Amino acid sequence: MKNIKIGFIGFGEASYLISQGLNEEGVQDIIAFDVNQNHDQLGDRINERAMELNIELKPNLKELITNADIIINATSAKFALSVAEEALPHLTSEDIYLDFNAGSPMDMEKISELFEGKTNFVDVAVVESIPKFKHQVPLLLSGKGAEKFRQIAIEIGMNVEVVSDDAGKSSAIKLIRSIFMKGFTMLLLETLSASEKYKIYDYILNSIENSITKTSLEETANLLITRTATHAERRVAEMSAVIDTLDGMNVNSKMSEATKEKLEDIVNSDIGQYFVDEEPKDYKEIIDKINNKN
């Protein structure tokens, strides 16, 4: 299994580090093609990395694909569909084509339709840091080729999980997760920027920690979302005061402004009318009402 030939489309940091890990695992037959490999400024780095790992750089996409069994597109999400279209004429039904880009689930669905019956497609979501884990970075797989790749991946020391035969689902998990993780980071930034003005970091962090870590995330979601749905109007007023406070401290209030706007959307949707006599059961009931209003 370790004699299988892997071809990387794009040989940036991700491809280099995964290749480095695979080399350590005993996988030596790796090739690559990068549109910038002959670039005046960018080419030197690409060629140096390829030489370090004894990876042959193929002159074009056709040469890469026809000489590889597993093709990994690790370019950029904005090129995911165009690279797939360019690759299609050169792929066979035995090949496995993986897209590692952080593209939209809709793009992954389009690629899956493009490849239907022609090759094995895998939508891949990278859910941890590649520099930290290299080839063992946790990967979520979906698509018709997911199980076929999983069987190969475990033989070469990769850390993969198949979530569905339907392409798009793994990308959906990654991107929807990013709503929270990136949004939470920006909320922390805004919160701590305001905390600095009064030197109350410890009090704020301890208070938030006590509020969100004493129960499971699902219980927290049930508590926060159900109460927000029934008390949205009061919370709009509170966020107005928050924004005034941040403005008074000259702290960027974009996250708080967005929170106020979302709360106003809930008020305007009149979700509260459904829960006058009875509290909502859980967050799913609230989300169902909100989505059916849109």
Which descriptors would you attach to this protein?
294 residues; alpha/beta; Rossmann fold; N-(1-d-carboxylethyl)-l-norvaline Dehydrogenase, domain 2; 2 domains; 13 helices; 8 strands
The tally of strands reads 8
Write the CATH architecture name of the largest domain: 3-Layer(aba) Sandwich
> Percent of residues in helical segments?
55-70%
Q: Kindly give the count of domains.
A: 2
Can you walk through the features of this model?
The chain has 294 residues and is an alpha/beta fold. The chain has two domains: 6-165, Rossmann fold (3-Layer(aba) Sandwich); 174-293, N-(1-d-carboxylethyl)-l-norvaline Dehydrogenase, domain 2, CATH 1.10.1040. Helix content is 55%, strand content 12%. The chain is built from 13 helices and eight strands. It has an eight-stranded mixed β-sheet with strand order 3-2-1-4-5-6-7-8, sandwiched between helices.
Topology overview:
Elements: E1 6-9, H1 13-25, E2 30-33, H2 43-52, E3 56-57, H3 61-66, E4 70-73, H4 80-87, E5 96-99, H5 105-115, E6 120-126, H6 130-133, E7 139-142, H7 146-155, E8 160-164, H8 169-198, H9 201-213, H10 217-230, H11 232-248, H12 254-269, H13 283-293
Parallel strand pairs: 1-2, 1-4, 2-3, 4-5, 5-6, 7-8
Antiparallel strand pairs: 6-7
